[in-house]
Amino acid sequence: MTGRYDDLSDEQLGRRLAAELPRRAAPAHLRRAILGTAPARTPRLSWLAPAVSAFAGALVVILFFVSALPRLVPADPAERLVRAVVSEHTRTLMWGARSGDVVPAGFTDLTRETGVSLARAFAGDDQLTLVAADPVYVDRRRGIALHYRDADGHLVSYVAVPAPSVVVPDRSRVQIDRYRPALLRDNGFATWLWRQGDVVCLIVSDRVSEVELETFKDYFRRMRAATEPLSAY
Amino acid sequence: MGAGPDFERDALTHLDALYNFALYLTRHSAEADDLVQETYLRAFRFSHRFQPGTHLRAWLFQILRNTFFTFYRIRDREAAVAEDGVPDWDVPMFHDAPEEDSQASDAHTDLERAMRKLPEEFRTVLLLAEVEGLPLEEVARVMACPVGTVKSRIFRAKERLRGLLRDYETK
User: Fold this and answer.
1) Digit-coded pLDDT (tens) for A187-214
2) Phi, psi of A64, deg, nearest 5
3) Whether the Cβ atoms of residue A124 and residue A130 lie closer than 8 Å to each other
4) Architecture of domain A75-231
5) Domain ranges of chain B
6) Is the pTM of this model over 0.90?
7) Predicted complex: ipTM over 0.85
8) Per-residue confidence at A45, pLDDT binned at 50, 70, 90?
9) Are the beta carbons of A230 and A219 closer than 8 angstroms?
10) CATH code assigned to B5-170
11) What is the reported pLDDT for B94?
């Protein structure tokens, strides 16, 4: 038995494809977004480059001396890890995304570099936009960091590091749906900390007030549900 | 140097075609958005590499397809999910599909459903050659293969398409 498509010659099938296959127009927001990415054509100021260069040089010198100042290191491995991740977060805040064009597929390279693989990863949504993915070295451990920017422009960092010995402090645990991550605060930042197998995961944000806690919980829900880190080695 | 205003304007005239192509590749409107946006970002950034007088549309399609492979590694993914070369429609490429994507996943016609079932190489060759009307030489450039291969893929893609359509008909 032959159907109506069997009778079609190659040319006819081609014509039907051209005529009948639905074509979707790009949404308006996409056009706006693309126009927003078009390079600005304002003329460069001739004095700007040397000034920025001098400023950056001075900043590097200052940061070098700041990092040489003695610091109190917490004894608890979890707190130490939180402090290190908060430092990484503040570095990203100061320097911006180091590799802004990192997008999902770059994760394979990151896995090679860090020993952490992401079976699934939160790629962002209407509230959070993935802006960078970087290898990190925190508390003498290699890990992977995904940086997001929320709708209000706050940077939110997700960090996963293999750390089998780190224990999630029970006293700081908070019930969020079926999860019980610990909420830890350090240096003016709030951090969720939990374990997924051998990997310790952290989310850092500057949403520290009680009012903002609900928002921060919501970020946890989104990332926790969509991200699955594994120790690759 | 970055893109000039003329280049941007010309490039944006192909936005709808690129978006449509991206939608068929990614099968997900949000991912198509990302893919198209990244394509334009790259096109603007590397506009100095574009040779005026050549086919801008084919150049943009080529960037889009390369970006698609770079970001989403569809070849690996499809090989993993489909032994017969026909990928499952609902498999998300990168993250969990949040919910049903009304724009991308509602195939309204058998033709559309069948197209989405085709392996990427077949889908792309039909979209570029038959739907977008690109000359075979340009399709070959986009797909980085000889023109003869393009012809053969078109033939095999149509065979496969007919088979799928026949299945839908009997159901």
Assistant:
1) 889 999 999 888 999 999 998 888 889 9
2) -60, -45
3) yes
4) 2-Layer Sandwich (3.30)
5) 5-170
6) no
7) no
8) low
9) no
10) 1.20.140.160
11) 35
